[in-house]
Design brief:
Elements: E1 4-5, E2 9-10, H1 16-33, H2 36-46, E3 60-61, E4 66-67, E5 70-71, E6 77-78, H3 83-98, H4 100-108, E7 111-116, E8 119-122, E9 127-129, E10 133-136, E11 151-155, E12 160-164, E13 172-180, E14 187-192, E15 195-201, E16 216-221, E17 232-239, E18 242-251, E19 253-260, E20 263-270, E21 276-280, E22 288-293, E23 299-305, E24 309-313, E25 318-322
Helix pairs in contact: 1-2, 1-3, 2-4, 3-4
């Protein structure tokens, strides 16, 4: 659960206020839009209170009604229980008490078994060649966004960068976080050993206007997906200049699998532009019920299986499998 996007997903301290807000808003919208998928997603969000967080421990204490003040990205828990944390924890518990089906999902989401999701790769973590240079961002905060890792790579013609990526079993989307500037800007080509993925243009941004910064830090999707098994990503800047901050690497279908109270759950989320299928095993016993939803949380299909199940995830949608 990212604390904020600036525009990279910045994981700082997670607090009950944020978790409760997700639970309450998802439930409210699910009622208004008649979208059962968002109702189930509220249960997954509530799993934060029971252990689905960076510390892997319950943040809510049912014997006292208190909620810990927060958990840092490194798993450090603030064991204080201030009024705000306790109130928001209790508000979520009241909602779960009133919605047993959502509560079951929350408890089944407590312990993470497997996670395959978006990764942030710093531009400066790559191997630089040619005139590419690492520049410390001073300050890192631009007044409206933030340079990831406090630095970026300055690119000019002939600059090259390469990264080693974790091997993946499915294709993935690569987004380049760049400083989009007015005017033409530079052009960088991204490639894997299988071939080129497309180009990113640093120009084309609007005028500064009242903005605090002359450019805008934005994630720009590279046109083609990187194929499964790609372990290397390279870039070359052939004309103009640009500032590359980071890469957001996302499997076409992200997977969060968790268990708790004898049940299990898997949440699959798609960034693909076509339907995709993924074969999964959900912890627990009994039949697996897999529901697929469109982008708006509307039910598309239901699959019931007694073992591993192949789930079809709609383009831009998600699926939740329970056992």
């Amino acid at each position: 659960m990212a604390a904020q996007r600036t525009p990279f997903p910045e994981r700082t301290v997670e607090i009950a206020y944020g978790a409760d807000a997700r639970v309450q808003s998802l439930l409210a919208v699910s009622v208004a839009a008649r979208a059962i998928g968002l109702r189930l997603a509220a249960g997954v969000a509530a799993g934060w209170f029971f252990g689905q967080n960076p510390a892997g421990v319950a943040m809510y204490n049912p014997s006292t009604g208190a909620t810990n003040d927060g958990v840092a990205a490194d798993g450090t828990v603030n064991l204080n229980s201030g009024a705000e944390s306790t109130i928001h924890g209790l508000l979520s518990m009241e909602v779960l008490d009133a919605n047993p089906d959502v509560a079951l999902i929350a408890r089944a989401s407590a312990t993470v078994v497997h996670r395959d999701a978006q990764r942030t790769i710093e531009a400066e973590a790559g191997q630089l060649s040619g005139p590419a240079s690492v520049v410390a961002a001073d300050p890192a905060w631009t007044g409206e966004s933030q340079w990831s890792g406090g630095a970026y790579v300055q690119l000019t013609p002939g600059s090259q960068l390469s990264w080693r990526l974790p091997s993946t079993a499915q294709p993935f989307l690569v987004e380049a976080v760049i400083n989009r500037v007015p005017g033409p800007g530079g052009v960088t080509t991204f490639s894997t050993p299988a071939g080129p993925l497309g180009v990113i243009r640093y120009g084309g941004g609007g005028s500064q206007g009242r903005s605090a910064a002359p450019g805008a830090l934005l994630p720009i999707a590279i046109p083609r997906y990187a194929p499964a098994g790609s372990e290397a990503l390279t870039t070359r800047t052939d004309r103009g200049s640009g500032q590359l901050d980071a890469l957001l690497v996302t499997p076409l279908v992200s997977n969060l699998t968790a268990r708790g109270d004898g049940h299990g759950i898997a949440v699959l989320t798609s960034v693909a532009d076509t339907d995709r299928s993924l074969r999964i095993s959900v912890p627990g016993s009994g039949p697996t019920v897999a529901r697929s939803f469109d982008t708006y949380g509307k039910l598309v299909r239901v699959i019931i299986s007694t073992g591993p199940v192949t789930v079809i995830v709609p383009a831009g949608g998600f699926a939740i499998a329970q056992r």
